[in-house]
């Protein structure tokens, strides 16, 4: 039975936690911190160790973008977390990092600046994918998938997010990739 953990901010909280990633052959647990930033995800380390996932999907980073954000530094912080997860959790085969979402409402930065920084962070993350840490571009999570608050996803957006995460988990747990133990 494949054990999957989805870790992140409030986007993870809003997902339907009754869905299985691979029907009948996986168990999925969700861990989130509303308004969470990368540094706060370390608080899940002991519970993740106890759960022992083989694949972790990280959906983080959007709350870290403020006016003084260095995209390169944020990408490095995310990859440092991934390395720490891989070193600290026995049996973890892969950490998948999901692309940061579009936002219409931001904090501490104009929406246009947020979008510029978001794209740079995603490009940095994509260029750093290697071995057991992989970047996943979410497709079709466009502004019309946002809820009225301009930050979180609406029902259609949450379904698309789940399907995107599910596709990543299927691809990277298939046993046909370099990280297979």
Task: Give the overall form.
Answer: globular
**Secondary structure: helix percent:** 25-40%
What is the fold-level CATH name, i.e. the topology?
Rossmann fold
Tally of strands: 5
CATH class: Alpha Beta
InterPro entries: SGNH_hydro_sf (IPR036514)
Organism: Mizuhopecten yessoensis (Japanese scallop)
Protein name: SGNH hydrolase-type esterase domain-containing protein
SSE diagram, text form:
Blueprint: E1 2-8, H1 10-13, E2 26-32, H2 45-51, E3 55-59, H3 71-88, E4 94-98, H4 111-128, E5 133-136, H5 155-172
Parallel strand pairs: 1-2, 1-3, 3-4, 4-5
Account of the protein in words:
This is SGNH hydrolase-type esterase domain-containing protein. It comes from Mizuhopecten yessoensis. This protein is α/β, with parallel strands linked by helices and 181 residues long. It has five helices and five strands; from the N terminus they run βαβαβαβαβα. A five-stranded parallel β-sheet has the order 2-1-3-4-5, with helices on both faces. α3 packs across α4. It is globular and about 45 Å long. The model has no long low-confidence stretch (mean pLDDT 88).
Short structural summary:
By secondary structure, the chain is of the alpha/beta class. Helix content is 36%, strand content 15%.
Descriptive terms for the model:
single chain; 181 residues; alpha/beta; five-stranded parallel β-sheet; 5 strands; SGNH_hydro_sf; SGNH hydrolase-type esterase domain-containing protein
